[in-house]
Amino acid sequence: RAMVGIAIGNKDFLGKGYGTDAMEVLVAFIFNQMNIRKIKLMVYAFNERAMKSYKKCGFVVEGIKKQEVFKNGAYHDEIEMALFRDDWAARRKQATE
Q1: Any idea which residues carry the catalytic annotation?
Q2: What predicted TM-score, i.e. pTM, was given to this entire model?
Q3: pLDDT tens, residue by residue, 63-93
Q4: Which fold has domain 2-96?
């Protein structure tokens, strides 16, 4: 398996699809060029924009670490997401039909 993550540091570039595009390229590289069957990532529950992007790329929630991080005066969950090569390939095939 592979563990991935991306970050967009400049707020001017948030919400423009760059993160989704970057993740799609990264996922395609991993599945097409490496002998990897599963890609995992972690995202904080308050990062709804990232979760939406990852779901758009085909990632699904596999687990939740409750109250894993303290930020802005409150504890937040950390979400574990994953994407399997077979699911990714099926989504790509369906998109081209």
Answers
A1: 54
A2: 0.89
A3: 999 999 999 999 999 999 999 999 999 998 8
A4: Aminopeptidase (3.40.630)
